[in-house]
Amino acid sequence: MFDDMSPLTFDLYKSLKYLAYPLTWIWLLMLVTAILVFCRQTPGRLTALRMTALSAFLLLHALSTGTISASLAGMLEQMHPPYTAETDPDTFDAIIVLSGTMFPQGGARPAPELDYVSLQRTLCAARAYAEKRGPRLVISGGVAASVEMSRLALALGVPEEALIQERISRNTYESAKEVTRLLSPGNKTLLITSAIHMPRAMGLFRGQGLDVTAYPCGYLTARKPWAWPRALPNVFMPDVHSLERSTRAIKELTGLAVYRVAGKL
After folding, report:
1. For residue 146, what are the CA distances in angstroms to 43, 57, 160?
2. What is the pLDDT of residue 225?
3. Is 50 domain-assigned?
4. Which of 13, 50, 190, 253 has the most CB atoms in a 10 Å sphere around its CB?
């Protein structure tokens, strides 16, 4: 399913991912609610109207509150502990860093820009290189992102001869395949990506036979899953950041399930 996808198939795959986003579910519930409002009311339709409206509210409220969103993210982020030289003092044959999103030049944006996730990962990769974790830094994630991340890594002190760009991949699975082709068999590698993305990335890279150690960064929460927050308003008050965090967590959980069903993990 994920091997050698044509551009059309890949675009369709990317579009279907929106079905996993909570905002899509809420929008669909609100659409059904709006349709029912303008229909001739019967006892059955009135009950359905109440149920869809209440479901949209509860879903939006639950996924926009700090406790639930932090628990969903923390459940994924704690699958791989933070990397420390004390627990794993070995050096590696290569450091691998995965890209996030790239914002293209256009409109009011005078030049291409990396998103916050890509910036975080590049900073972590440059720090790992400065700590002499490995002699090479492989930047994976397509042409535009790998070029911009390489420029940032150079500005952060990584020498050009240590940089290897993987410019073909369009998703994490393709990154794992293409990076495996670039490295020698048996290479020991350090994998850098966002903590919430690490479970899926580790599974896919190990599925390609790579010896990888996790170096998670860019944590979205410091709380343990389902821990009661110290500030009670966080339990009840929704916010955009929490909804975004819930969305990223559900996206990763869906990705894990899909890749597992497809036999890639």
Report:
1. 58, 41, 13
2. 64
3. no
4. 190
Does the residue 238 lie in any domain? no
pLDDT tens for 45-89 read 999 999 999 999 999 999 998 888 989 999 999 999 998 877 666
Q: Which residues contact 47 (CB under 8 A, 6 or more apart)?
A: none
Does 265 map to a domain? no
Q: Give the whole-number percent of the chain exceeding pLDDT 90.
A: 62
Which residues are within 8 A (CB) of 181 and not within 5 positions of it... i.e. 6 or more apart?
none
Q: What is the CA radius of gyration of the chain?
A: 21
Nearest one of 92, 73, 84 to 220, comparing CA atoms: 73
Query: Is residue 48 situated within a structural domain?
Result: no
Q: What is the pTM of this model?
A: 0.88
pLDDT per residue as tens digits for the range 108-136: 888 888 899 999 999 999 999 999 999 99
Residue range(s) defining the domain that contains residue 120: 83-217
CATH number at residue 164: 3.40.50.620
Number of folded domains in the chain? 1
List of long-range contacts for 175-182, beta carbons under 8 Å, 24+ apart: 175/98, 175/140, 175/141, 175/201, 175/204, 176/201, 176/204, 176/205, 176/207, 176/208, 176/210, 177/208, 178/140, 179/96, 179/138, 179/140, 179/205, 179/208, 179/210, 180/205, 180/208, 180/209, 180/210, 182/138
pLDDT tens readout for residues 218-258: 999 876 666 656 656 666 788 899 999 999 999 999 999 98
